[in-house]
Amino acid sequence: MDLGITGKRALVLASSRGLGLGIATALAAEGANVLLVGRSGDKLAENCKAINALGKGKADWVWGDLGEENFVESMVAAVKEKLGGIDILVNNTGGPTPGTTEDMSVDKLDTFFQSMVLRVIALTNALLPQMKAQGWGRVLTVASSGVIEPIANLALSNTLRGALAGWNKTLATEVAGSGITANMILPGRIHTDRIEELDGAAAKRTGKSVEEIREASVKTIPAGRLGTAKEFGAAGAFLCSEQAGYITGTMLRVDGGAARSL
C-alpha cells in the first residue's frame, strides 16, 4: 500500500533510538523527509546515514532535549531551516523513572511534566498553524499502554501519559475540520532499550534475574513474544498516512493483545 506521504515533512521527537527511530524509519521508507531529534549526535547521524542509504525519503537531524526551556523555540526554528515546513509531527518522549505514587515528589512530578506534557503541547500548538494553513496535517503522540491499563510501579508514566490522552482527544475534535488528525499510539512490550532498563530495574527491585522478569512478562502477552520497533513504526506510519485521514482522536494499541480491557 502506498501511504501517500511521499515528500511530506516529518519531525520525530526522541528518535535517536527505540520507538521514535522505528517511526522515523518507517516514514522515510514511505518517501517522507524526516527530521530526527535527540541528545546523541553520533547516534542521530548514524541513523540518518542508514535511512538515506535506502534511497527513499531523506533524513536529517538536530540536537534537542525536551528538558531544556528553549526546546520548543529551537524545534520551530529547525523545522523552518531543515524542512521548510511541517506536515507530520510525532510527539515522542523518554519515559520517566519507575516508582510508586508515594515516590512522586512534587519536584519530580514537575520536572517530568515539563518534558513529557507541557513542551509536547506547546510544540504542537506552535506547529499547528502551518498545518491549518495548508489544510493537511498529522499529529501522532506516542504514549504507553499504561493509559488504558495502569502499569505497576510506573506511577509517573501512568499519570503524565494519561494527561496527554485527554489533551489528544480534545485536540482531535478541534482540528478535524482543518484536515488534521490527532492520534495516540500505545506501545506494550516492544523490545527496545527502554524495556531493557525497566526489566533491569524490576530485577533489582525483586531480586529476580532479568531473564526471569522477561519470561514472566512474555507469558502475559497473548502473542507470546515482545514486539519490534519495526512493527511499531509501521503502525505509526499508517496513522500518519493519507489513507488514515478519517481516523482521529483514537488510541491504537500495539501490544500483542496484552491489554485486557475492551
From TrEMBL:
Entries under InterPro entries matching the protein: NAD(P)-bd_dom_sf (IPR036291), SDR (IPR050259), SDR_fam (IPR002347)
Sections of the chain in a coiled coil: none
Organism superkingdom: Bacteria
Similarity comment: Belongs to the short-chain dehydrogenases/reductases (SDR) family.
Protein's name in the database: 3-oxoacyl-[acyl-carrier protein] reductase
Organism: Neorhizobium alkalisoli
